Fold this sequence. Notes:
Order of helices and strands: HHHHHH
Structural class: mainly alpha
Radius of gyration: 18 Å
Number of strands: 0
Mean pLDDT: 85
Largest sheet: none
Distance between the termini: 38 Å
Low-confidence stretches: none
Shape: globular
Helix content: 55-70%
Strand content: under 5%
Number of domains: 2
Amino acid sequence: MIDEPPIPHPSTRRPGWQRTLYATAGWLCVAIGIIGLFLPLLPGTVFLILAAACFTRSSARFEIWLLAHPTLGPSVRAWRATGAIPRRAKWLACASLLVSYAFVWLSGAPSIGLAGAAATMLAVAGYIISRPEPAPRP
């Protein structure tokens, strides 16, 4: 059996300035994601998934930290494994879309803007609803 060298983390194949840019974006997404855990209209999980993607491109250490975090990691790991979204998150996301549309409607946007916003939000809601739900914890 031939010993093969370990596969390098994707971040090591990028120039330093790109890793710095991705790490900065990742930490910004972590901050917004944490805020989103407390504010019902801000989708925290989406920003944590984006943070993990940024950390994949910038730092193996930060990526491992996020994935192993007891509070922040499970939803990101579930997304990576199966593209799963918990039922509660689906409800909150769809409710947020509805509230957002109400703001667009109340803003006095023209009909074409209302139609475009409705079409986009319905497509997003359809995607969210179609995702599987994570298996219950043992």
